[in-house]
Amino acid sequence: MISRRPAWAWGAVLAAALFGALLASLLYGSVSLAPQDVLRALLGQGDAGTVSIVRELRLPRALLAVLVGGALALSGAALQALLGNPLADPYLLGVSGGAACGTLVGSLLGLGTSFGVRAGVFDALALPFAAFVGALAAVLVVGVGASAGGRLDRRRLLLSGVVVNALSSAILLFLLSFGDPSRTQTFVFWMLGSLAGATPGAVAALSVYVALSLALLLPLARAFDALALGEETAATLGIRVERAKRTAYIAASLLAAAAVAYAGIIGFVGLLVPHAVRRVTRAHRGLLLLSFLGGALLLVVSDVAARALFAPAEISVGAITALLGAPAFLVLLRSRP
Amino acid sequence: MTGKLSAEALAAGYGPRDVVTGFTHAFATGRVTALLGENGAGKSTLLKALAGIVPVRRGTVRLDGRPLADVPRREAARALGYLPQSFDPLFPILARDLVLLGRTPWRTPFGAPSARDLASVDAALSEMDASRFADTDLGAMSGGERQRVLLARVLAGEPEVLLLDEPAANLDPRHRFLVIDAMRRRAETGGTVVFSTHELDVASQGADDAVLVSGGCVLAAGTIADTLTEPLLSELFGVSACVTPGAGGRPVVSIGPSRGR
């Protein structure tokens, strides 16, 4: 039976693959480095230039890919359980639209002069902050729209998210029509998703969000399992349904908002990974943890591909995940047992 | 009030309307009680209110004499087993995994299922003649097979009170008796069984008592012999009924279109 195939064995496989992908991520780049130099540089030894490339550029970028990919997949897994909809995606809650609006408004106000390029410390922090604020504002609006009589209505949540995302696109188009072309171009680059803005600070901030969300979501695994029977039946099994839904909503939104703030809008990770993991385990404790590992792996690999395929030019990592994700998703759908 | 489960002047519903209103009844322990009534009479809402999942607007549901709202959540979940009328799986799920969800109130937040959990799951599947589809996805089953798996989910929790909404729906005659037998077994070992149906033969064969529900309150309540009578049934369903005594004192009801209405 599927649910008792050892999820931990898959976890070990994914963790090993992730470790390999992380090494590849440190080795590949515009400057080729030998493995032993990379290892020495990680420990702070060797040529100062190499140390700087590895410790300040490549390592934060690789770790950011781990956290963003993991956060998106974890958010997708929680959201699919919350909404009882296998097509739910972290951006469904209006997160992506809100973050995009926040970022654009931020840049119109003169926060951050460019995207993805190292500017001053304030600039590097200001735009993620604007994105985060925009995402949270959208999530709040969606949540209010989906609440009825103090309860979070699952179907309304879906509709409310779709509507807020549509509204956000309208505002974006409106604002962009005033902007100058160069700003539009950098904005579109951010929209497509990029890990180029990785800094140790971003990694630290995102790992706090991820740790917090995992601490909120893992205790809900049993509730997510029971929610498969419907809200009412889950309640008769002793599940605090409203509390579980609200916590999952907040945690999933926070994860997606934080990921968008630091890496732009990277599609398909949150949709594809939980789907794939559901082939291996359907119990949510394993599903949540394996989704995190799977999402991390997918994004690290995609980022290496984004840098390596047309080097020295770099493609947007969001384009890679979509190029990989869309066909993979179709294959998963076709082979549905 | 005697009995494990009782309702006093209960009112519950959705939106502006009370679907159940002024419902008072004590469900006898050790007996199977059928809730009989037309479509929309309030049977399902009543069962949900008894299970604590529809907010009670007025009145009280009592479990062991205590208001249900005061019973700790886990204790109530262990004591009450509820079968909803319909269920569509949102995600693929194997029968055994679904039945295991019935053990939720007995499990720790993180641990693997205990030997006791697994034994209860196997026993429930076997009792519902569903062991052979334990490893089948629910979506690949017929309506009747699925219904038996869903019932096994309730039985696996080993609740003292069973609240079953249309447990015999979609079942062929043999499996209908299988379900009836399972309900009787629970009653004989001191359980309280309440089920809804609008099928008179299921009520007459399966239940000891019946509560006739009309407009969300009690039209009549009593033993099957006292309640499945020609005047009460024609009043309840608006049909003409012909009741003859059958084997074991269980009335045999045949119905036809209403006369003179």
Task: Tell me about this structure.
The complex is a heterodimer of chains A (337) and B (261). With 337 residues, chain A is mainly alpha-helical. Chain A has 14 helices and two strands; from the N terminus they run αααααββααααααααα. Chain A has a two-stranded antiparallel sheet with strand order 1-2. Chain B is α/β, with parallel strands linked by helices and 261 residues long. The mean pLDDT of chain B is 91. At the A-B interface, helix 9 and helix 10 of A face helix 2, strand 6 and helix 3 of B.
Provide a count of the helices of chain B.
9
Instruction: Trace the largest sheet of chain A across and list its strands.
Output: 1-2
Strand runs of chain B, count: 12
**Beta content of chain B:** 25-35%
Helicity of chain B, in percent?
Answer: 25-40%
> Strand order, biggest sheet of chain B?
6-7-8-3-9-10
The most extensive contact between chains is:
A-B, 28 and 35 residues
The average pLDDT of chain A is 84
Helix and strand composition category of chain A: mainly alpha
**What general outline of chain B do the C-alpha atoms trace?**
globular
H and E order of chain B = EEEHEEHEHHHEHEHEEHHEE
What is the rounded Rg of chain A?
20 Å
- Proportion in β-strands of chain A: under 5%
Helix content of chain A: over 70%
Which descriptor suits the 3D outline of chain A? Answer: globular
